[in-house]
Design brief:
Distance between the termini: 11 Å
Structural class: alpha/beta
Radius of gyration: 26 Å
Bound molecules: 6-O-phosphono-alpha-D-glucopyranose
Number of domains: 3
């Protein structure tokens, strides 16, 4: 959601800002804008894509070595030119871009209107631009102090960048609840700001992840970071582990396809160096440091949204099977507004690719207030979720740009497998030999996925056959019930075809009524203790003339005459089968979406990182 990029230094800001906005396109947005400082303050903005902004500013003066840009995902007010950022203050001298929501904007706006302010947009952001100028004029404060005083009046979440015509060498940025990263440039006084590190990777490896309540003030080529009470902070400078190659399509048509194909590597990166299969031992800091506490846990609550919630559902089976722990899996958005009963010996595990999902963060906050220990499983280094966690593990999948999550999901499942095994070891619910066996099976997964990816051509043909279907059903049991949910989610996210995932046996309690000759049903029927039962479910579909696409274990030809299509995938142990079985479902949704002419990497209405509730 909303992307922020800003630059201050000696280079031309516009190309840097525009390129940065393009790198952030994956977050999801509906309008774009820039503000540039070159003696004067110039703002260009438009509904639509960054390329539309480029066209709109084609003949305009875009010079200046200080600039900021924004991609907006509409919350307050429809996507149009007026609501696009940057917003200006009453005099037009203060310009502001914002990611987040100002919850008390209506009250602030009322006060400003009483003082003669009029507004040109319906946004909460414009109110803040006006407020800062109002405070400056009425209290005689400097820009930085007026920003601080204004933010003290704000309730809500924000990452903001401010430029002011009267302070032509200044750039001010602040965050609370929405992410903001600072890149330190190679020359003195050169700084980059962005919602995440992707626009910074080509310019610097030195980054600061701003903390909540911090304000960065760049003036006279120096940056000072202060807290909201004006106390100077000493930031930690991180080394960025991201390179340009990770942010490019690398010859693939879409990021999603590249990321599907990256999975042998990303899964390997998720477990690399973290265990020794021969001895059944772990080298994971969180497991080592917290082994005593982990052994004492009485209950595990897994929280997440979207695909991360599906990874939590797979983990429910893993933790129950391996660590014999009672497990609950919760949508973060529901959990945060309940009054959950939590105890100090509960472990709440938050799962997130981006580390910035607002509902997940709020759910973690609630769990902490209720004294549970909070563990984060996250992909984006330095994001808010790891910072809010008592302990955690990164998934190391690398940057995921496609909005539909693919490699992040399989990396989450991989890390959750290790955590389930690690807690099993601490709780002594599995022997070292049993643990070793699962570890060895995990080491074979990258090769098996490599093999599963060879199904691509077969799946292209399948996509051709079913691309015009308007409904799909996905069925699975046990470990593969969440895979069915994830398969259905992938299809609806990127091709806008209605799809539902169901536990195979539940089909007869509802979805069976939908089955007819036009309903493709994808059934995950790989070898497991439920196999025969799943075959019975397949028979039930076929008896009603449904079209069945069965995902079976390699070598299984017994369904060839029963179902319409068989996809054979490499076999692994049941607990790890979601990692392999997900692959053909990802490919199927990808190819159908491409054939339907959909924007695979930036599906309509969706955002990669949902920073508002
Ligand atoms: C959005 C994304 C999904 C993602 C979900 C949770 O809806 O489009 O792909 O699964 O948010 O995001 P997180 O970053 O917390 O995993």
């Amino acid at each position: 959601m909303c992307g922020i990029v800003a630059y201050i230094g000696s280079k031309e800001a516009y190309p840097i800002v525009v390129k940065g906005l393009k790198r952030l396109e994956y977050r999801g947005y509906d309008s774009a804008g820039v503000a540039l400082m070159n003696g004067d303050l110039r703002v260009y903005k438009t509904k639509g894509k960054v390329s539309d902004l480029e066209s709109a500013a084609k003949d305009a003066d875009v010079s200046g070595t200080i600039g900021m840009g924004h991609t907006r995902w509409a919350t307050h007010g429809e996507p149009n030119d007026a609501n696009a950022h940057p917003h200006l203050s009453l005099s037009g001298k203060v310009s502001l871009i914002h990611n987040g929501i100002i919850e008390n904007y209506a009250t602030l706006k009322e006060g400003l209107e009483q003082r003669g302010h009029t507004f040109t947009s319906e946004t909460d952001t414009e109110v803040l631009a006006h407020l800062i100028e109002d405070v400056m004029i009425n209290s005689g404060l400097s820009l930085a102090d007026a920003v601080r005083a204004s933010l003290k009046q704000v309730v809500g979440a924000y990452a903001i960048v401010i430029l002011s015509k009267d302070n032509p060498e200044h750039l001010i940025a602040a965050r609370k609840g929405s992410p903001l990263v600072v890149g330190i440039g190679s020359e003195a006084g050169e700084y980059f700001f962005a919602s995440d590190a992707t626009p910074l990777a080509e310019y610097t490896k030195k980054v600061i992840y701003m903390k909540d309540g911090e304000i960065a003030i760049v003036e006279n080529k120096e940056m000072t970071i202060k807290n909201i009470d004006n106390v100077v902070q000493v930031p930690y400078v991180h080394e960025l582990e991201m390179n340009l190659e990770m942010l490019e399509k690398g010859g693939y048509d879409h990021f999603m396809l590249k990321e599907i194909y990256e999975q042998p590597r990303s899964i390997y990166d998720s477990y690399r160096g973290r265990f020794n299969a021969a001895s059944g031992t772990f080298h994971m800091r969180s497991l080592e440091e917290y082994s005593e506490q982990l052994a004492q846990i009485k209950r595990l609550i897994l929280i997440g949204c979207g695909t991360s919630w599906h990874a939590g559902l797979v983990a429910e089976y893993l933790f129950e099977d391996f660590a014999r722990l009672p497990v609950e899996v919760e949508y973060a958005s529901e959990f945060r507004y309940r009054n959950p009963v939590l105890f100090s010996d509960d472990l709440v595990m938050a799962i997130s690719q981006s580390g910035e999902t607002a509902d997940t963060l709020a759910a973690m906050d609630l769990a902490k207030r209720k004294s549970a220990t909070v563990f984060g499983v996250c992909n984006v280094v330095g994001s808010s979720i790891p910072r809010l966690s008592d302990a955690g593990a990164y998934t190391h999948a690398g940057p995921e740009i496609g909005v539909a999550s693919t490699k992040a999901f399989t990396s989450q499942v991989t890390v959750l497998t290790l955590l389930a095994l690690g807690i099993a070891k601490a709780r002594k619910t599995m022997s070292d030999k049993e643990i070793s066996k699962v570890m060895s099976a995990l080491e074979e997964i990258p090769d098996k996925i490599e093999k599963a990816l060879l199904l691509n051509d077969e799946i292209v043909k399948l996509a051709e056959t079913y691309k015009d279907s308007r409904n799909f059903l996905y069925l699975g049991r046990g470990y593969n019930f969440p895979v069915a949910l994830e398969g259905a989610l992938k299809l609806k996210e990127i091709s806008y075809i209605h799809a539902e995932g169901y536990p195979a046996a539940e089909m007869k309690h509802g979805p069976i009524a939908l089955i007819d000759a036009d309903m493709p049903v994808v059934v995950i029927a790989t070898n497991s203790e439920h196999y025969e039962k799943v075959v019975s479910n397949i028979q039930e579909v076929k008896a009603r003339k449904g079209k069945v696409i069965a995902v079976v274990s390699e070598g299984n030809t017994s369904l060839d005459k029963i179902v319409d299509h068989v996809i054979q995938v490499p076999e692994t142990i049941d607990a790890l089968s979601p990692l392999v079985n997900t692959i053909p479902l990802q490919l199927l949704s990808y190819h159908i979406a491409v054939m339907c002419g959909c924007n695979v990497d930036q599906p309509r209405n969706l955002a990669k990182s949902v920073t508002v509730e």
